[in-house]
Amino acid sequence: MQICVLSRNGKLYSTRRLLEAGKERGHDIRRIDYLRCHMNITTMRPKIYLGDEEIAGVDAIIPRIGATHTFYGTAVVRQFEMMGTYPANESVAISRSRDKLRSLQLLARKGIGLPVTAFAHDTKATGHLIKLCGGAPIVIKLLEGTQGVGVVLAETQKAAESVIEAFRGLEANILAQEFIAEAGGSDIRCFVVGDKVVAAMKRQGAEGEFRSNLHRGGSSTVVKITPEERSTAVRAARVMGLNIAGVDLLRSNHGPVVMEVNSSPGLEGIEEATGKDVAGKIIEFLEKNAKAGATRTRGKG
Fold first, then answer.
1. Residues whose CB falls within 8 Å of the CB of residue 180, separated by 6 or more in sequence, listed in order
2. What's the rounded Cα separation, in Å, for the pair 23 and 215?
3. Distance between CA 196 and CA 244 in Å, rounded?
4. What fold characterizes domain 97-113+182-284?
5. Domain residues of the chain, as ranges?
6. Do 2-92 and 97-113+182-284 fold alike per CATH?
């Protein structure tokens, strides 16, 4: 099978592991920098080029689209879909997961457990926004933030009002969420491939840090998840339309709640913590499912 990993950096652990896993299983696999691709958008015969080279005959792609290049990256994925190439994650699903507000609305509609979340534009609604989340402390998030950047814990009413007003002054879109104190600064990353959680780890924030992201100095350990947590992770990925997803859960007093569904979850932390060949699971998924024109949207979305 001919597979392309759409990734900007060939030195990244996740990219290297996917290439290694593909080669180990006997596939013709290569990395393509999606920002260097250009497209011929023409009726009936869509094409993709890398420089002067036409990229053709690709059976499957594994999109590793960075958050700062979602628009162009998903356009490239969509072009491959139009050409009949099978994507590990479809363009529509990637775009859906990158929109935090849309993601939460879709998950809520399907009955997935979430922290109480509020959203407003009018600065006069700030007080009511905080009240909806159960009062301080609350978590305030930039909609465009990633890896814990743009996430603030406001411990008092005044602090929450000041942070919200500051973000509003910058014309930034924000979410306010209840603070799940019982999580103790930790979360659980469930790595979903297809309809299964293939690995799970607990991420613990550094001392004095409520964010558990590994990029922010957090640590990871293998964890045994409950059937309810497993079901929640799989359902959340399915709602997003993602075949490959990192679903971040918090253990709250009222059961597991979903913080985020990531369409390009990193492999380094999860493989090191669990010792599992997650990259191999992704390649195995493609072997079973990659068929020409088998995408649900076929580039229509």
1. 115, 250, 252, 257
2. 29
3. 10
4. D-amino Acid Aminotransferase; Chain A, domain 1 (3.30.470)
5. 2-92, 97-113+182-284, 117-179
6. no
Domain 117-179 CATH superfamily: ATP-grasp fold, A domain (3.30.1490.20)
Of 92, 91, 84, the C-alpha closest to 55 is 84
Residue spans of alpha helices (H) in the chain: 13-24, 70-82, 91-98, 100-109, 126-132, 157-169, 227-240, 268-274, 278-289
Topology annotation, domain 2-92? Rossmann fold (3.40.50)
* pLDDT in single tens digits along all 301 residues of the chain: 999 999 999 999 999 999 999 999 999 999 999 999 999 998 888 999 999 999 999 999 999 999 889 999 999 999 999 999 999 999 999 999 998 899 999 999 999 999 999 987 776 778 888 899 888 899 988 876 555 567 888 889 999 888 888 887 777 788 889 998 888 888 999 999 999 999 999 988 666 555 555 555 567 899 999 999 999 999 999 999 999 999 999 999 989 999 999 999 999 999 999 999 999 999 999 999 998 766 665 444 4
Neighbours of 210 (CB within 10 A): 20
Q: Which residue type occupies 287?
A: E
CB 172 within 8 A of CB 142: yes
